[in-house]
Design goal:
Helices cover about 50% and strands about 15% of the residues. By secondary structure, it is of the alpha/beta class. An 8-stranded mixed sheet has the order 1-2-4-3-5-6-7-8, sandwiched between helices. Helix 3 packs across helix 14, helix 4 crosses helix 5 (about 145-155) and helix 5 (about 145-155) packs across helix 11. About 35% of the residues are buried. This is AB hydrolase-1 domain-containing protein. InterPro entries: AB_hydrolase_1, AB_hydrolase_fold, AB_hydrolase_sf.
């Protein structure tokens, strides 16, 4: 019996040692790969000092109206994500794509991701970069909260909002709950497992499926998107946003007063899959404006602008002309 226990113990020790070696090798592989990626991952726009940290903003276009893009939660690189839209808009309007801290080319920050801090940072980077209000905001998904809060805090600086399958504050506060980003996910990232998986074309394609396989994004930008995804998969700012969204929604909701400017709600039909709760909140989202309207966009998923950039651009320009 003692001999059997000794053999079992030896097997366990050898197994644990092998696991530790693999984890350690994976961690080194991840660290080396990150350093390599950072050398080529250079800002597409300009960096501005906001509270002592670098915040990135990419701008262009021409005209009297500036369209400001607010990305959804977890969208690693907004510059890439919104490219199908600003390419269509730039002959007609100016545009600005900002990266919240933890996203794109921006640094991470030690400040909590409460909605007023985020909104103040957006306001400051727009000022520092020389953008001129009034703005037309375009918010995707969870980006709805910061666009609404910006309009509440700086009412004279917003002339309209277009929401891209964005949840209302009522939806985020009443019908969703924060979830943990997950210890296992962090372990898989830190030990290089996720990076190894993304060497597979099928895994990359699967990760892009909700975004229409980035059909309207140039190949060069697809490469940037992949690098950004690997660099930004897990950081404290993105994780904290996920934990804070219910509290943030409550702040926006507590200050609700219908806006005088136009608000267009573009809602995905999720390729024909009906969600009665989501659809109810989307229809009621128009109550946030005295000039609210909703349009359900057929044959699209959550990233509407990756499926119908033409239609979305037309809706944005319709508000810009008002």
């Amino acid at each position: 019996m003692n001999k059997w226990l000794r053999r079992l113990w030896k097997t366990v020790v050898v197994g644990l040692a092998a696991i530790l070696v693999l984890l350690g090798s994976g961690a080194i592989y991840e660290q080396v790969s990150v350093r390599k990626d950072l050398k080529s991952y250079t800002p597409s726009g300009k960096l501005y000092k906001v509270d002592g940290k670098n915040m990135h903003l990419y701008s262009g276009g021409q005209g009297d109206v500036t369209v400001v893009f607010a990305s959804g939660w977890g969208t690693a690189n907004p510059y890439v994500d919104f490219s199908p839209l600003y390419e269509k808009l730039m002959p007609h309007v100016k545009f600005a794509v900002y990266d919240r801290f933890g996203y794109g080319y921006s640094d991470t920050t030690d400040k909590k991701r409460d909605i007023d801090t985020i909104t103040n940072e957006i306001h400051e980077v727009l000022q520092l970069s020389g953008q001129k209000p009034p703005y037309l905001f375009v918010g995707h998904s969870l980006g709805s909260l910061e666009t609404l809060r910006f309009a509440q805090k700086y009412p004279g600086e917003v002339k309209g909002i277009v929401m891209l399958d964005s949840g209302s504050p009522e939806y985020y506060y009443n019908d969703t709950d924060p979830v943990s980003d997950g210890f296992m996910k962090k372990l898989l990232i830190k030990t290089g497992v996720i990076r190894l998986l993304f060497q597979s074309d099928s895994v990359v394609a699967s990760s892009r499926s909700i975004r229409n396989d980035l059909k309207f994004v140039p190949e060069e930008l697809k490469g940037i998107d992949l690098t950004a995804s690997l660099l930004k998969l897990e950081n404290a700012n993105i994780a904290d946003e996920l934990q804070q969204f219910k509290v943030n929604a409550k702040v926006v909701l507590d200050n609700k007063k219908p806006f005088p400017f136009p608000l267009t709600i573009l809602t995905s039909d999720y390729l024909g899959v009906t969600n009665d709760v989501w659809n109810k909140y989307e229809a009621e989202f128009t109550s946030w404006s005295l000039q609210g309207k909703q349009l359900v966009v057929k044959d699209t998923e959550h990233y509407i602008h990756q499926y119908r950039p033409d239609l979305v651009a037309d809706e944005i320009l319709a508000l810009a002309k008002k």
